[in-house]
Amino acid sequence: MNEDRKVIFFDLETQRTFDEVGGRHNLSRLGLAVAVTYDSSAGRYRAYTENEVDELVEELAGADLVVGFNVKRFDYEVLRPYTDYPLQSIPTADMLEDVFEELGFRLSLDSLAQATLGTGKSAHGLDAVRWFRAGELQKVIDYCTRDVEVTRQLYEYGRQRGYILYWDRRGRMQKIFVNWS
User: Fold this and answer.
1) For residue 37, which of 6, 51, 54, 166 sits 20 to 30 Å off, Cα-Cα?
2) How confident is the model at residue 72 (pLDDT cuts 50, 70, 90)?
3) Quick one: how far is CA 43 from the chain centroid?
4) For residues 152, 155, 159 and 163, what is the CA-based torsion angle, rounded to 10 degrees?
5) What is the Cα–Cα distance from 153 to 118, expressed in whole angstroms?
6) Backbone dihedral angles phi then psi of residue 10, each to the nearest 5 degrees
């Protein structure tokens, strides 16, 4: 990674599920539980709660590049009710968009990480909602931090090699060519 560039890896978890807000088209009603960033220039993770959204947006807006998985169609939409900042103007690498563009279908972060890195996510987003409701905020932060770590490792793998991996329906390892240089 070019150390002169400030690359922010980003993910968030929500307070509510799709079922509770009337479906996937109501992302703005999900509510922010926790967001986590990793700043490549500082080499540090940072967690944000709902009352710290302004600081989160400031960090994202100050990045040379924000990297995430489904960040444009999910994470930014969850944040939209909290800010007037034009999130779509932030230079963003959305890894899921690149996968879809190459393959014509979507794959999960976990399936890509399992195939490419031999490791995956630590839990499921619904677990994070449950932990949030139970007041177990540190569990949500830990889970979200792990997702950011996996996102960063997958991105770095693709950036260095020009591809990431997935298992097709017949159980064969396949390459997805990416240009994340």
Assistant:
1) 166
2) very high
3) 17
4) 150
5) 11
6) -145, 140
Q: What is the pTM of this model?
A: 0.92
Residue 1: inside a domain = no
Which domain does 154 fall in, by range?
Answer: 7-177
Rg (CA), the chain: 16
CA distances from 35 to 13, 53, 79, 165 (A): 6, 9, 10, 27
CB 35 within 8 A of CB 48: yes
The Cβ of residue 170 has, within 10 Å, a number of other Cβ atoms equal to: 6
Residue 2 lies in a domain: no
Q: Which residues pair with 13 in a beta bridge?
A: 34
Q: Reply yes or no on whether the pLDDT at 2 is more than 60.
A: no
Count of domains forming the chain: 1
